[in-house]
Write a structure and sequence with these properties.
Layout lengths: L22 H26 L4 E2 L3 H8 L3 H13 L3 E4 L9 E4 L14
Antiparallel strand pairs: 1-3, 2-3
Helix pairs in contact: 1-3, 2-3
Length: 115
C-alpha cells in the first residue's frame, strides 16, 4: 500500500493574518528608502489590506517599530518623496493621517501617483 502524501494548507489572503507587498518595493525601493522605510511601508501594508488605505497613529507605529515619532515623520517623507505613499493630514479632525499606498505600474516602474 502506497503512503499518502501529507496534506498541505495554502495560505489564504482573506485571512486577516496575511498581507502582500510588491516584490518591487523590496528589490527596487529598499535601497532608496532604507530598512526603516521598508519596515514602515510594511506596517502600512499590514494595516491597509486590499483597500490600500491605512490610518494607524504615528504613536502606534513608533511603538510597533520601537523608533521615535521623529523617525516616523522622517521616513513618511522619504516614502512620500519616492512616490510610494500619499499622506492626507487629518489633524484638524483629531484623527490620524490617512496613508494611501500608491499603485505601482509594474516591475522596475515608479508609482503612478494615484490611488
Amino acid at each position: 500500500m502506497e503512503k499518502e502524501a501529507p496534506k498541505i494548507e495554502i495560505r489564504d489572503i482573506r485571512d486577516s493574518d496575511w498581507y502582500w507587498i510588491s516584490r518591487s518595493i523590496l528589490e527596487d525601493f529598499a535601497p532608496k528608502i532604507g530598512v526603516i522605510g521598508l519596515a514602515l511601508y510594511n506596517v502600512y501594508a499590514s494595516y491597509a489590506r486590499e483597500k490600500g488605505v491605512a490610518f494607524p497613529s504615528q504613536k502606534t507605529i513608533a511603538q510597533k517599530l520601537k523608533v521615535s515619532l521623529r523617525t516616523i515623520r522622517k521616513y513618511n517623507k522619504i516614502l512620500e518623496d519616492n512616490g510610494l505613499i500619499k499622506i492626507e493630514c487629518r489633524k484638524s479632525e483629531g484623527k490620524p493621517n490617512l496613508i494611501t499606498l500608491l499603485k505601482l505600474r509594474g516591475r522596475n516602474q515608479f508609482p503612478t501617483g494615484s490611488a
